[in-house]
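name: query_chain
kind: protein
chains: 1
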Amino acid sequence: MLDETENTPGGGAEKTTTSVGYVMGDATVSLSAADDDTWDASVAYATGATTMTVATDETGMYSAGLSYASGDMTFTARQEFNNEAGTDDETEFGISYAAGDMTFGATYDSGQADHYGDEAQTVINASYAMDGATLAAKATDRDEVEVSMSFNF
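structure:
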C-alpha cells in the first residue's frame, strides 16, 4: 500500500507543506516550507522572452537559471552551487524545438551521471502527433532507447 503523504510503501510520517507566491509586475517570489524543516525560496524575473530565476533551500544549495524562447525554440540553462545532496556544483541545459505536430528536445544534467531513464545525464527525444495518435522516441547516454505510441479517443 502506498501512503499518499510520502508516496512510500507501508505508510510513513505525514508531511504538511505550505506554499505562497507573490507576483510583482514581472517578478515572482515563491516560498514553500514543510513541517519536516525543509523549505525552498525562489525569485523569478520575466522580461520579454527571457526568464531569470534564483533559488535556495534548507541545505544551503542555491541555483541560478535562465530560460529564453524564440519562435519555435526554447533554451534553458541552470547552475547549482553548494549542493549537499551528494554532488558538487551541477550544470543543466536544454533545448527544444516545436514545428507543428513535431517536437524535438535535448537535455544535459551534469549531476545525473550513472542514472537511467528520464534521470539520465543526457536525454534526446522526439515526438509526432497526428489525429489523436502520438509517436514518441527517446534515447539516453546510457544506451537506452524508448519508442512509444499513444492514442487519444
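note: The mean pLDDT is 89.
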